[in-house]
Amino acid sequence: MLKELAERLSQGHRTMAYPKGEAVLPDRFRGRPAIDFAKCPDGCDACRAACPVGAISTVGGKPALDMGRCLFCGDCAVACKQGALGFTREHRLAAWSRDDLVIRDGAPAPQGPADPEKLAIFRRSLKLRQVSAGGCNACEADINVLTTVGFDLGRFGIQIVASPRHADGLAVTGPVPENMRLALEKTYRALPPPRVVIAIGACAIAGGPFAGHAEVHNGAGDIVPVDLWIPGCPPHPLTILDGFLRVVGSQA
Amino acid sequence: MNAGRPFAFHAGQAVPRRSVPALAFDEFREFAVGGVENGARLVALFGLPAAGDATQLLAILARDGEGLLTAATTEVGASYRSLTPDCPQAHWFEREIAEQSGVRPEGHPWLKPVRFHRPHCAARDAWSRPATLASKGFSVLGEGALIQALRPEAEGPECITSPAPNPQEKDRNVDPREETLRVPSLRGAPSPKTEKPDVGGMLPGVTDFFRVEGEEVHEVAVGPVHAGVIEPGHFRFQCHGERVFHLEISLGYQHRGIERALAGGPAARTMHYVETAAGDTTIGHASACCQALEALSGCSVPARAEAIRAIGLELERLANHTGDLGALAGDVGYLPTQSFCGRLRGDFLNMTALLCGNRFGRGLVRPGGAGFDLEPARAAELSARLDATMKDVAGAVGLLWETPSVLARFEDTGAVPRSTAEDLGLVGVAARGCGIERDARFDFPSGIYRLAQIPVSTWSSGDVFARAWVRWLEIQRSADFIREQLRSLPGGALRTECRTLAPESLVVSLVEGWRGEVCHAVLTDRRGHFERYKVVDPSFRNWMGLAMALRDQQISDFPLCNKSFNLSYCGHDL
């Protein structure tokens, strides 16, 4: 017992100050992409051509980048010779509307939740059931890490639970292989309504690297109604936490 | 090895496909079975479409002591004589061949699908399942040609609609203690009762399972969705009270079609497929892929990049081993180490993010070199963080070895006999925990490991304790290795260009990922594109080891045994 106490003193208090304190991110972190549309010359599609997953399209001669498909690999930024496209260190990426994940010229301000009344019941307490449906264990690992002492998810009233019957919401990762479709549907139906569905990661939003494969659906949205989208491959734990905090209403 | 036609090559060496001996089937079978009997190890066995209706089988054996690989091919028709009764290492590979290539290994003791998907060649199904069963047919993708497309289009599907007969006898009523003996062994002649399992349709897990019947015998079915934040898989326990007679593991829920999509490459998504094959082994798989591409294109990787890649690979090992030790502590109810290690695992992931901006190492390993440099200031920062974190890891993990209640739960739980580990060809921590000196960094060194060796860490008891202790030994040695690399980081370029790939070639790359040996075997076609890209994740070889570890254990020890292996579902399912 004394050894455990001594070790506890040695390791110290490790819960981060976030969200009140600063978000500590690596200098090479690739967060929200930013495009300076004025710098895009006519007819240039270097970024679109460089994207391995078709996240960039050209709308009216200007690029539109879908963060839902984006793997945040940064190949487009390397390909952009005008310096118009880059990745910022902004980690807050979650959106209530799938359209709000698309970064384009003249995009409207992001929308709030479609059904705020449904969400009101989850303020201060949110129990989530996680289903990995083809997730590669990166999104899963960065959800799991939120339950460690570093992030201490419990202090926000959020908990990952072991049964859909105990859950208010479903957190889905992975592109949803056909082999997981039934299990995902059944889990969703086992959640008592009102229930919230969160799609975490590029796979769960749009299929990720597996988009278009016959073996998978292109994300959770094909199977269950998604309320909140959290992009990334995988999203940084703080990006996921920021998304969860929007559901409990302590983050705008 | 066939004495008349010796052919050996190195891991990471591209060889012309025509130099691989094409043997008659009986010679091929003897090559694999006899080779394994003589101490070689089956690292890959798979099929690819050949002319007409034939399927070419390719077997790759590793001779660990000599650091050499041998290979042979043969052509088979709709079926062939299974290798498994004489070579248990082939058991999972042959089930995969049946599923992917639609070829039946006759006499396989338990021939079921491993992933529950349509065969790569739609015209042939080893279980004669109707072609219309799949709810989504294969479609041609924008990139990555289908293996299907390589087939002559002439023949139509030969579908027999009647389901295979169910041979299961339902009327057995015998003493369960006798029944343990009936659980089929992989070695020796198969029991006729288990020769032809009913594999049902295409739904994962809908198939026959081993059954033990008798008074007070019960079956526990778990999954696919589990109680935590874990990937899906299905487990069937045959129990008598708390005692587990047998565990059967049924996977495939994570199947995303990676091998099928890799064919026809290299393409824009190639690196992303391998980086997400098993996302917690991003650097292990990316390294194996890059080594294959570099060998095929004859490109020489700068020493600086080799060192950075190795630092990434060892950080991956540090993060996962530390996390596993914490989780093992949690599974025996010892919370201090669990909570310390949960945080420390993240510290290692953040060191990987310091290197490349991503906690799992996405983008760090790229063909021809590394995607990110390690400048002196960054190297100093990494070194300082490593020292601070290692001090805490030593304190957190040290508690385990000083706590009798932890050791009492670790010791003698989930023991795998060394002979079983050898029969099954286990790799990684699972093998080294049985006292087997098997480590690709030592046996088949590539990159910077040719110059800087890491001692192989083993322990002989084969139980949960051994797998925990080997992890702790490896943590210390990986940290020392990273410190050494940071002190003597080579200068020079970061990346060279990889040009076109050699046509009609074979390359096998072996990388010791944190779970064990990652094997990528790549065959190029006449144009220098991937004709077949075979990925063998260490989990593919180790899941059966977990099933064996559970025999005669308490079912309540399953989480502890499972965590001591910590295998990948998606790495297996691909």
Could you please describe the fold and organization of this structure?
The complex is a heterodimer of chains A (252) and B (574). With 252 residues, chain A is of the alpha/beta class. Chain A has a domain at 116-247: 3-Layer(aba) Sandwich (Rossmann fold), CATH 3.40.50.12280. The mean pLDDT of chain A is 93. Chain A has helices at 2-11, 46-50, 75-79, 116-120, 138-144, 178-190, 202-206, 237-247; strands at residues 33-35, 56-59, 62-66, 85-87, 102-103, 126-132, 158-160, 169-173, 196-200, 228-230. In chain A, strand 8, helix 6 and strand 9 form a beta-alpha-beta unit. Chain A starts with a helix and ends in a 5-residue tail after the last helix. Chain B is α+β, with helices and mostly antiparallel strands and 574 residues long. Among the domains of chain B are: 8-114, Beta Polymerase, domain 2 (2-Layer Sandwich), CATH 3.30.460; 258-538, Cytochrome-c3 Hydrogenase, chain B. Chain B has 17 helices and 15 strands. In chain B, strands 1-5-4-3 form a four-stranded antiparallel β-sheet. Chain B has a four-stranded antiparallel β-sheet with strand order 2-13-14-15. Chain B is globular. The chains are: A alpha/beta (252), B alpha+beta (574). At the A-B interface, helix 1, strand 6, helix 5 and helix 6 of A face helix 4, helix 5, helix 8, helix 9 and helix 17 of B.
